[in-house]
């Protein structure tokens, strides 16, 4: 199960209001990055039959069938700091991560 922090939930809601025909935020994992896997996120206008959906209030986080197992137990958060702002993923399955936090090895 993926969790969504309260801050991320609010930010997703705000950003979805600016988009047209969006049903949720897709979070995915693909090969690449300096540690083997790389996170990605995009607003989604439709869901697939094999997608896993996590709902918190009216916010949906969507994962495809290949990404869902790699994201099991992860938390989607939104960070706003002097170094910048953006979504981050805290993944307990990540054995190692890169300095920027966008890639990991499992």
CATH class: Mainly Beta
Distance between the termini: 17 Å
Q: Please tally the helical runs, counting DSSP H or I stretches of 4 or more residues.
A: 2
Order of helices and strands: EHEEEEHEEEE
- Spans of at least 5 consecutive residues whose pLDDT stays below 50 are none
If you had to describe this structure to a student in words, what would you say it looks like?
By secondary structure, this protein is α+β, with helices and mostly antiparallel strands. It has two helices and nine strands; from the N terminus they run E-H-E-E-E-E-H-E-E-E-E. The strands form two sheets. It has a six-stranded mixed beta sheet with strand order 4-5-2-3-9-8. The chain has a three-stranded mixed beta sheet with strand order 1-6-7. The mean pLDDT is 85. Residues 2-101 form the Core domain. This is Iron-sulfur cluster insertion protein ErpA.
Write a compact overview of the structure shown.
By secondary structure, the chain is an alpha+beta fold. The protein is built from two helices and nine strands.
Task: Give the tags.
three-stranded mixed β-sheet; 106 residues; alpha+beta; FeS_cluster_insertion_CS; HesB-like_dom_sf; 9 strands; 2 iron, 2 sulfur cluster binding; 2 helices; Hypothetical Protein Aq_1857, Chain: A
Give the topology, please.
Layout: E1 3-4, H1 6-18, E2 24-31, E3 37-44, E4 52-56, E5 59-63, H2 67-70, E6 75-81, E7 84-90, E8 96-97, E9 103-105
Parallel strand pairs: 1-6, 2-5
Antiparallel strand pairs: 2-3, 3-9, 4-5, 6-7, 8-9
């Amino acid at each position: 199960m993926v969790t969504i922090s309260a801050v991320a939930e609010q930010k997703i809601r705000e950003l979805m209001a600016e988009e047209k025909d969006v049903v949720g935020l897709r979070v995915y994992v693909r090969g690449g990055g300096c540690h083997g896997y790389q996170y990605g996120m995009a607003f989604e206008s439709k869901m697939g039959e094999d997608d896993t959906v996590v709902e918190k209030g009216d916010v949906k986080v969507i994962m495809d069938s290949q990404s869902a197992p790699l994201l099991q137990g992860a938390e989607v958060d939104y960070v706003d700091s002097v170094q910048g702002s953006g979504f981050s993923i805290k993944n307990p399955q990540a054995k190692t991560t890169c300095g920027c936090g966008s890639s990991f090895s499992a």
